[in-house]
Design brief:
single chain, 105 residues, alpha+beta, 3-stranded antiparallel sheet, 3 helices, 18% strand, globular
Amino acid sequence: MKRTVIGVLSAAALVVLLGSGAMADKLLCVSNQNLKGETTVNKCLDQGMEFAIVEPNGFVRILRPREIELTKKINPKAFETPGFGLKYYRMAPEIPPLPVSPEVQ
């Protein structure tokens, strides 16, 4: 009985750890559904394409120009990633984390 409980708890912990790491916000093009990483998000934005942040639970937030401008200042690497359309959601990279501030180092 004790072994079964430990096994179940270990399996549950493994599922939580593996599942949480695989799910993160992604930046996806809503203007071109078939975009498959041929160009960067920055170049797509220069062409007037519209992007959204898609959360793991399915919520979508369309980015307005002001949000894009501020995000570029805070996390420029987010827009240097390959651009993917909604059709290729699973292939799209996660949004890179914020760079470490020089003040923290």
